[in-house]
Structure formats: C-alpha cells, structure tokens
Amino acid sequence: MHRRITAPGALAAASLLLAIPASAVPHSPGAPGIGDPYYPSYGNGGYDVSHYDLRLKYQPATDELEGTATLVARATQDLTSFNLDFLLDVGEVRVNGAKASLRTSGEQELEITPKTPLAKGAPVTVVVRYRGVPSSKQAFGFTSWHRTPDGGVAANEPEAAAWWFPSNDHPLDKATYDVSVLVPDGTQAISNGTLRSTISKLGWTRWNWRSDKPQATYLATLAVGKFDITTGTTEGGIPVLNAYSKDLGANAGAARASIERTGEIADWLAGYFGPYPYSALGGYVPNTNTGYALETQTRPFYSPRQFANGSNVSVVVHELAHQWYGDGVSLKGWKDIWINEGFARYAQWLWSEHEGEGTTQELADYVYTSHPADDPFWTVKPGDPGPDNQFDLAVYDRGALAVQALRNKIGDESFFAILKGWPAKYAHGNASVADFRRYAEEVSGKPLAALFDTWLFQPSKPGAPAARAAAVAKGAKGAKGVSQPRSWKRIAATNGVHGH
C-alpha cells in the first residue's frame, strides 16, 4: 500500500493558513494529491489537463530518455503553484511562456511556481524539458519502467506515467495525446492510438502516434525495441496494428496465434458492449520478464509469459473488454476497480460460452461452490477492496460472480441493455460503482442496493438464501455436484494479469 506521510510541520502550516481570512489569500497552491484515499499522493489538484504533447528521444543502449512535454490545461482554482507527478531530472519548466521555478518533494512530486499566479478558469500551457534513465528511478519502492534487452517499456497499473512524462497521474484527469519518439534506425517505438507517420534522417527514425480520445495517464504506454509489426482491419473497419518483439523465443507462435485474433474479438465484444470506442486497435508483446497483461488504451500490453503454455485467447478477450470497461469509462476512484475487472472477467465467461466450454452460469456456480465459507477469498470486497487487495483474485472472480447475480436478478433483457448502455452513457468519462448501481436500477426498474451489498460489499460468503435468490449454485451445498467448466483452466491461466 502506498501512503503519503504528512509531517507535523505541514499540519501546523495548514492550520495557520486556515486562520487567515480568505480575502487575504486569493490564490493558493494546488493540492499534491487529487484526493483518492487509496493513493493520497497520486494526481494533483488545481488544474485539469486536456492534451499532452510528448516529443521524446530514447537511446536503447543506455536507457537514456530526453523529452519536451507540453501540457495544455485549465486552472480549476486560483493558483500560486501546482504539482506534476514525475521522476526524471527536469532542466526547465515554462508556464504560459514564462520560466517557472521548481522543486521536488515526496516520492514523485514536481512543484511548479509560475511567474504569475493563475486565475481559476484560465488556460494554462506548461512546457517541461527533461532527461534521465527511467530504469534508475523508483517511487514507493518499485519501478514501473521495464528494461528489456533491446530497449524499455512503460506499462503498469495504477501508475507508469511518472517514469516517462510529467502528468496529473490519476484516471480522473483524462486527456488526448500526441507521442513523438526518436529512436535509432532499426528500432521501433510503439505507443497508443494511430501511427501518423515515421520519418528517418541521419540514422534516427521518429515515430509519431496520436490518441484522439480521452485517455487516463496509466493507460498511456511506450515500448521501444526491435519489433515485427503486423497491420490489418477489423470486419467493422477499425485499423489494427500489432507488434511482437523479435526475441520472444518459443512464445512467439502462441503470442501471434492469440493476438492476431484481436480484430475478431473486438468485433465480437461490440455485440455485447456497443461500438468499439476508438479509431485504433492492436496489442504488443515486448521481451519483458513481467507476468501481467495490461489494457493500455487501444493497444494492450502482453507479457511473453502469458503465452508460455500455448495460445491464450482468453487474456486477449479480457484486455479488449477493458477498452469499454475501464478505458472508455474510467473509474472515479481506485476503489471502483470492480467495474474494470469484474466485467473484463465476465467477458471471459461470455467467451467461454461462445466457445462451448462452459456457460456463464456454470462458471458462476463453480466459483461460488469451489470457495468454502472460511476461504479468505470471501473477505475481499470487490466493491471497495482496499489498496492492498485491489488486484486480488476475488476482485476478478467474485466480481464476475456478482455480475452473474445481477443478470439473474434483473433478467437478460435489462442486463444486456445495461452492458451496452453503460459505455455509451459515460463514454470517455469517469464513473463509480454507485453510479453503476443507480444506472442498473434505472434500466431494470428494480431496487438493487441489497444485491450489490451482498455480492460486492460484505466480507463474507453470501449464504444459501442469497445464492438461491440470485440463482447461483441452487441449494448451495458446496462443490460436490458442480463440475469444473472446460474453460476454467484457460481462464485461470490468465490470472497473471493480476500481478501488477
């Protein structure tokens, strides 16, 4: 769990400020955190970013990154100063063209004081020039930059941005992106969205990517290395670009056999979730030793280990489902992770049914009966699991079980209307578990507070009456008589996605 420790002196200073009349301090510093109780120092207060323009140069041999980041933003309060989340070494910051003063604090805070205070509602342009070696930086005792034999990769949840660009690092502040990366000829730079152009000159190639729909900072990705790139188009007309490290070894064939089905799976998911929300699609597999996959927007990241035992289409289904649930509609706070992971796992259950390897009901029955009442599995509350359990298996499996319980309670007509309507209602915005419950009640016309409390918020196994009411494991007599669906091992093989 990542915690920001507030020094007593800071509390005293805050108390002194409260004693000063508001009229005497018309401007104040932006908060060093956006207010998420799970991660108090993540994100920042006082401004909202609408666009990031990142112009980078990366040297794979030394892991040296230099860049100029331009942030287009708007002040949301009167500001004397504001923070960015960032770890590399900053040479200069300019705010609205004028050089600003800066200092670092905490684990990843870059405190910026503009020459002139900023008025609430005013447009703000911030230019940050920086350089450094991302793999040499840690925050909270870990790194989200993965060094590879031929380069490096930024991909992690709930944070990765601070290792390669300065940002307001929380899903509440989504923005569009232009990412331009200069790398040595023969090396590729992979990012989100659409590849607009590549330009080669004097031994270097610049890769220019654009994400034209709002994107959370942790969903922005950069991978530099030697890749084989494939391109195509989905049946629905979305361009697909996939990238595979040239050094995947025995995992190469299984990776391609899985990820080359990206277009097919996205078209299939659109039947449940509505139109694909972006103008680009794909996936990439760098040569990392990490075990997880991540739903980086439009182009999910997959670890080679996901394909160590053969093709793994289920993990592709999971990460693509996130493009609607988690990316298109992002969480308001990290406690709302169930909307991301419960529905991405449920998409795997729908795929199992599609493949004739176990229905969603059979999978729900199996999850319910295979965990006895004293299993710690039931102590995790998917609707608010806490930062230590945010990616616990229960958030996925108990989370999907809750989705099936909801389906059984309200019926298929309302359920599938919700599956498709939710990504449209909150498209490219943010929403909470409470928002989802209200929306489900609105569509179904049924009160659902008790059901949500039982399946998402109680730290115990729902008893036999609740199971019968949700048509889960009728009789609730335990695992006997409930056979393991054929898809179960394939779904369980994707559990490495939890290891963020």
What does this structure look like?
- This protein is of the alpha+beta class and 500 residues long.
- It has helices spanning 8-19, 252-259, 262-273, 313-321, 337-354, 360-370, 393-410, 412-425, 433-444, 449-457, 464-469, 488-492, and strands at residues 28-29, 47-59, 64-75, 79-85, 89-95, 98-99, 101-105, 109-113, 123-132, 145-148, 151-154, 175-184, 188-191, 194-201, 204-215, 222-225, 227-233, 239-245, 281-285, 329-331, 429-431.
- It has an eight-stranded mixed beta sheet with strand order 6-5-9-3-2-12-15-14, with no helix packed on it.
- Strand 7 (101-105) and strand 8 form a beta hairpin.
- Helix 3 packs across helix 4 (313-321) and helix 5 crosses helix 7.
- The protein is globular.
- Its EC number is 3.4.11.2.
- It comes from Streptomyces massasporeus.
- Belongs to the peptidase M1 family.
Overall morphology: globular
In what order do the strands lie side by side in the largest sheet? 6-5-9-3-2-12-15-14
- Structural class of the secondary structure composition? alpha+beta
Q: What radius of gyration results from the CA coordinates?
A: 23 Å
Count of individual beta strands: 21
Pick out the low-confidence regions.
Answer: 1-24, 475-479
Total helix count?
A: 12
Could you give a short account of the major beta sheet?
8 strands, mixed
Average pLDDT, all residues: 93
Distance between the termini: 13 Å
The fraction of residues in strands falls at 25-35%
What is the helix fraction of residues, given as a range?
Answer: 25-40%
